[in-house]
Structures are given as C-alpha cells and as structure tokens.
Amino acid sequence: MPTPFDELKPKRRSSLFAGLRSNFLTGLVVIAPIGLTIWLIWAVVGLIDGFVLPLIPDGYTPDVLLRRLLGPWVRELLGLEGAIDPSFTPRSIRGIGVIIFLIFTILVGWIAKGFIGRSLLRWAEGLVESIPVVRSIYSGVKQIAETVFSQSDTSFDKACLIEYPRRGIWAIGFISTDAKGEIAKNNQADSPLISIFVPTTPNPTSGFLLFFPKDDVIELDMSVEDAAKLVISAGLVYPNGKGGVETVDASE
Length: 252
Description:
Layout lengths: L7 H45 L9 H17 L17 H18 L1 H15 L2 H17 L10 E5 L6 E9 L2 H5 L7 E7 L7 E7 L4 E2 L4 H9 L4 E3 L5 E3 L5
Helix pairs in contact: 1-3, 3-4
C-alpha cells in the first residue's frame, strides 16, 4: 500500500542529483581556469625550452654546468662520493630555456637601440626587402609583432553597442580611434566615422574592423575587460553595473 512518504523519494533522489550536478559544475568553474592556466604556462615554457636548449652544445647546457660546479661539492658534503652512476645524465631543468631566451631578447633589444644596431637592422631589412617571397612574410610578421608588443599607450577606448550585421541586431564592439586619411575624407555620413572592432565569440582576438558614424554608436559604461568577458563567455557573464560581474548559474 503506498504511503505519503513514497512520493517524497523521487524528489529526494532528484534533489540529490541536482545538488551533485550543481557542485560538479561549480567545481569545474573553479578548477578549469586554474588548470588551463597552469597547463598553458607549462606548455609554453616547454615549447621555448625545446626550441632554445637544442641550440646549446651538449657540454654547456645549464644543467650540465650546474652538475659540474655543484656535483662534487654536494657529493662530498653528503658523503655520497662514488654513489652516483658516472653515466648519469641530468634531466633538463624546465624553464632554463625561457631564462636564456629572455636574456638573449633583452640583449638584442639593447643592441638594436644603439646606433650600430639600428644601422645593422636597416641594412638587414633592406636585404630582406629585395627578396620577393621573404619580403612579404617578413613584413606581415613585423606588423603583427609591432601591433602585439607595441609599448605605446594605444588601446581600445570603450565598449559600445552597434547595429550589426543589420538593423535590429546588436553587437558589442570596441571603440578604437577616429577614422583618418582616405577613410575620413570619403566619409558621406552626417557625423565623423570612428573605427570599431567587433570581436567573435569565443575567440575575441579575431573579428571585424568596421567604420561607423559616431551618432550610430552607443557607448557603454562597462569596462573593456568586462565587455571582453561577456564576449568570451558567450553571454554567460554579465557586468552588473557596479564594477563586478554576474555569472549565470550553470545548474539552472
């Protein structure tokens, strides 16, 4: 004979699974960014090490030099003389390649800022410009590097709303700068043109460069960082207008 308590059992089971599901998704939200960040850093460090360390002669790698300098002293201190296999090959110290790469890059930058370095750089670029295929590759890579690693203060000013790709559909964009040159000269709109970068989801590094009349652009109070979070999360993370963000509950 059924009792009133029988009706509560499925609800309890459902509530239990819902709680476990909510806890699991919350744990993913916490673990995923940390784990992916650590993995990405570890992978990048290993990639740089794998590129730099093979260029160093075997007898002069940092781990071998450290073994030569500290090995006898450490073995004598610990009373391990003769306990280590002579054929032992020390493992490569992860991150040493990154340090060598940083030192080398800083040295190259310091030389390039000098008169001799600038002269050599102009001569090398002139030589590259005379080679058809290499010229195109070098110029493209140089423009990308100058854009990504530029030390100037140029950046996106504000986040905005624009009607794109047609009237009635709105997209988030980033205000870059006022249109200049031929773009501004051929402007037939009633207001000045401004350049808007419209990012794609979930990868905001790709997108579209559009020129909109200033009167058609709605500036937002949210910061560029909050707008980027909104784009990356595909609308799951919304700024709350108080300097923070509201995250959509994944368990709903």
